[in-house]
Design a protein that fits this description.
Multidrug-efflux Transporter Regulator, Chain: A, Domain 2; mainly alpha
């Protein structure tokens, strides 16, 4: 996005199309191919995208257009990245627990 552009909570498919440079039919097709891409729909049934959806679309676009992955390959790569992010989150939680335990031990020894 351009620096002067106002960030919103939700974007329409036409706005996302303009932001990402992808046609609307491509966005709708990718929804069927990538399980992580699930824009919600408003009461009228129109797709509404969030910043995380746009970020995800940009990642898909990079994998397909720049890095020349196939759709299946991009799907696998995204799944691997999601699993790695989960592992990193688990590690961070473990580190927090260890820090707390060490602090408790330090308090006991003080």
């Amino acid at each position: 996005m351009q620096s002067g552009e106002i960030k919103k909570l939700y974007y329409s498919i036409s706005e996302v199309s303009r932001i990402t440079g992808l046609k609307q039919h491509v966005l709708r097709y990718w929804e069927t191919e990538f399980p992580g891409l699930k824009p919600t729909k408003n009461r009228a049934g129109n797709r509404i995208y969030r910043e995380r959806d746009i970020k995800y679309l940009r990642r898909i676009k990079d994998l397909l257009y720049n890095q020349k992955y196939t759709i299946e390959g991009a799907r696998r790569k995204l799944k691997e990245e999601e699993e790695l992010d989960k592992k990193k989150g688990n590690i961070k939680e473990k580190i927090k627990e260890i820090r707390k335990e060490l602090k408790d031990v330090l308090d006991i020894l003080s």
